[in-house]
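Sample A.
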Amino acid sequence: MKHTTTPRTRRGRGPAHRIGRTLALVLPVVLVLSGTLAVTRVNWSGGSSNSVLAASSEDVSTHSSSRAPQDVLRDKLLLELQEKNPGVALTHLQQAVNDRPSLARHCVSIARALGRAAVRVYGPTRAQSYARPVCDTSFASGVATQQG
């Protein structure tokens, strides 16, 4: 077997090299653009308001069928809390969990969100007056965490 020591003159200039160079130029641009679009969908305010920037101009309500049932329920109950009162929202939360047991694992987080929202809308004392044992004491826990 004979080994040659002469270097290849066209080493690394094949199709794989061209593909690698193209990816090295295009991939960072794609990553930056996709990251920018993802950031515009995040609700940075921490609240549950509908002021989230949309990456497109489509109506957000048309996407409700693709949202998780617990998210749809939480948003509906938060709206109900503002329009009526926390007691009505808690009653409907309990009914929803009774009707769809798969929502039970989300009950605590929804009730806490209702408690935090109730403090913002009604103040801590009045919000606490609506507390009841829906999903244990999660509503009261949400009220308490928002007070401090």
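Sample B.
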Amino acid sequence: MFVRPEDDPRTDGAGPGATERQVLVTYLRDQRLTLELKCAGLDAEALARRAVPPSNLSLLGLVRHLAGVEQFWFRQVMAGEEVAGRHFRPTGELGSEFDGVTADPAAVAEAWETWRAEVAFAERFVERAPDLGLPGAGGDEPVSLREVLVHMIEEYARHNGHADFLRELIDGRVGQ
């Protein structure tokens, strides 16, 4: 197990009296914490390792990818901010955030710092939103904050499944 149950920062839901917002925010928070737990205790080399050749997936690549996903959905689509480009996609091509992964501690620190900054932006945005029906201010198709939160839970859940396999191949540790 990655963490003893008594030390696990995740919850078992928002509780029976929770609002819809509290439920969605709690599940997304727990998925974000799961990503951090899957990567905990690994050095830069292990985080950058492509554990399932020929795939370019790595734990560090997932962190970089999810930083860009957070940026896209919350900054661009919901807040309508103009950004120069998606984080860690120098070529702009889908998946290029996985190609540029290196076993450099500075690159690992940058990825975590960027991801945490985007998560903090998203959390502030959701906290300040008047309701879950709030439409996004950017993007091609109208989308509500509710839809974005559900999509983000799905996005993290899918990639945390990848992280489970990657971590097990790196050092044999399996998640709970």
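B remarks: The CA atoms of residues 84 and 127 lie 25 Å apart. The helical segments are 20-39, 44-48, 59-78, 96-99, 105-128, 145-171.
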